[in-house]
Amino acid sequence: MAPQERGAISCRRIVVERFGGVEELREVETTVAAPPPGHTRVKVIAAGVGFTDLMARAGEYLLQRKVPFCPGYELVGEVVDTSGEGMAPGTLVAAALPKMGTYTEYVVLPNWLLVPLPDGLDPHLAAAVPLDYLTALSVLETHGRVARGDTVLIQGASGGVGQALSQLGRRSGLRMYGTASASGSAERLARYGVEYIDYRRQDFETIIREREPHGIQAVFDHIGGANLAKSYRVLAPGGVLVSYAFVGRPGHMISDTVRGAARVKLMNMRPGRRAALCMVPRELKTNRDWYRVSLERLLTLARSGEIEPSIAAIHPLAKASDVHAALERREITGKIVLTAS
């Protein structure tokens, strides 16, 4: 039905009513009320899909431990209406959310979360930017504090955040090593000046020690476990290990994440080197100015082609369960975007 202006809008939304497999992603009909003061109602054009969505659906994500919920951290949409001062209807905006909720046709968000798209930037490409690239920027600048000419190691360099780190690292003049194993990783990473290490066949600690006997300035890790100690050992005096995710055991993801975070904090108490945790969903709501300036900057870089988000596929919202299944089977390399329009 055609909604009245300022009235409730009917919409489809994907929800997880109980933790479990892809069958727990359910499409429901709901309504989205008019925005309260300081908020804007947005028609979602595209929502990025991340592995955190899969973890949350399975009940194995530390930052999403309650059901029911709507998955998804990032979106691009069109302003429908706003309460008070806000952007004009029809404005295209991007956002990364502190709490999940982007697998939907319409959503109401605080005005401060919405960043206008630069003219000419494709909305689907823009939807691949917020979470991965904000994480990479935070890792590099907020926590890593690396400088031009520094040497760094990117664990999982062919993943979403890994590619973002590679691209932003190239712009920052870093010397980069990257671990990966996916087909085509060596060629892909070479485009960004990253020296490829096949972690299934090579030991990154041995290679770094041979090639960089004095150590390197930073390691960016999303694996945890035994990798943390090995990554810490290749650091030069004054170097930093930045952890932005943890790969845990199925069924033990939350406990393994908590254990990994505690380990990083203990490492940071040792003299001579630093260790840091990066959790962008929490960081963006504690530093709104950084979030807005950074996302505007990243969208501008995407518009000019200076960063290159890799979109593997675009699927309708109703195919969310198929997308999750394909990601779990590791059938897709690159970002998947769900389109709601």
Written description of the protein model:
The protein has 341 residues and is α/β, with parallel strands linked by helices. The chain has two domains: 9-128 and 288-339, Medium-chain alcohol dehydrogenases, catalytic domain (Quinone Oxidoreductase, Chain A, domain 1, Alpha-Beta Complex), CATH 3.90.180.10; 131-278, Rossmann fold. The protein has helices at 51-57, 123-126, 130-144, 160-171, 185-190, 204-211, 226-233, 253-267, 280-286, 288-304, 320-328; strands spanning 9-16, 25-32, 39-49, 74-82, 92-96, 106-110, 115-116, 151-154, 175-180, 194-198, 216-221, 235-243, 274-277, 311-316, 335-339. The strands form three sheets. Strands 3, 4, 5, 6, 7, 14 and 15 form a seven-stranded mixed beta sheet that branches. The chain has a six-stranded parallel beta sheet with strand order 10-9-8-11-12-13, sandwiched between helices. A two-stranded antiparallel ribbon has the order 1-2. α8 (253-267) links the parallel β12 (235-243) and β13 (274-277). α3 packs across α4 and α3 (130-144) packs across α10 (288-304). It is globular, with a radius of gyration of 20 Å. It starts with 8 loop residues before the first strand and ends with a strand. InterPro entries: ADH-like_N, ER, GroES-like_sf, NAD(P)-bd_dom_sf, Quin_OxRdtase/zeta-crystal_CS, Zn-ADH-like_protein. Residues 20-338 form the Enoyl reductase (ER) domain. One of its GO terms (molecular function) is zinc ion binding. This is Oxidoreductase, zinc-binding dehydrogenase family protein. It holds the Pfam family ADH_zinc_N_2.
